[in-house]
Amino acid sequence: MDAIEFIRQWIAAARHQIEDSIQDITVAQFNWPPPGTASPISAVFIHLLNSEDFFFQNVIQAKPKLWETGGWAEKTGVKNFPDYGGDWDEFKRMTLALEPVLAYQCTLYASTDSYLDKLSPDELDRKVKFAGGLHSVAAMIIHTTSHTVCHAGEIAVLKGIQGVKGLPY
Hints:
Elements: H1 3-22, H2 27-31, H3 41-60, H4 66-69, H5 72-76, H6 98-117, H7 121-125, E1 127-130, E2 133-136, H8 137-161
Antiparallel strand pairs: 1-2
């Protein structure tokens, strides 16, 4: 297996984890405000999607995020998406519809897949700026995908705390 095929399989596995973690989720579960400092699933899910958007659009391709170009703030009702180090507490007071967020997910995945369709070995080695340094595109894809898998586990736990099965296995 070559590196590009490995990346495709790794991304597919991460997406499978996300799909499994949000399987059969209700609007109430999606928006449930957990105790303590934990964030609602809605915040975690939008954050992980917006992170993929940031990494694939901004960092790797030097394009504006789909969140901005597609008007997703208005479509989802999320004016300030949950970002690293930001205040996620407002999500504990929000009730978001699932459909617009899932539509953003579909748009995002289609855009990422379009980029991956053109991925080449040379592109994997190309350096991009992130966090004050230069990193390979391959490293950024791995970072993005592992970030997604971590949040899939977080979503599964948040469902479990609500008394429903977090993952189907």
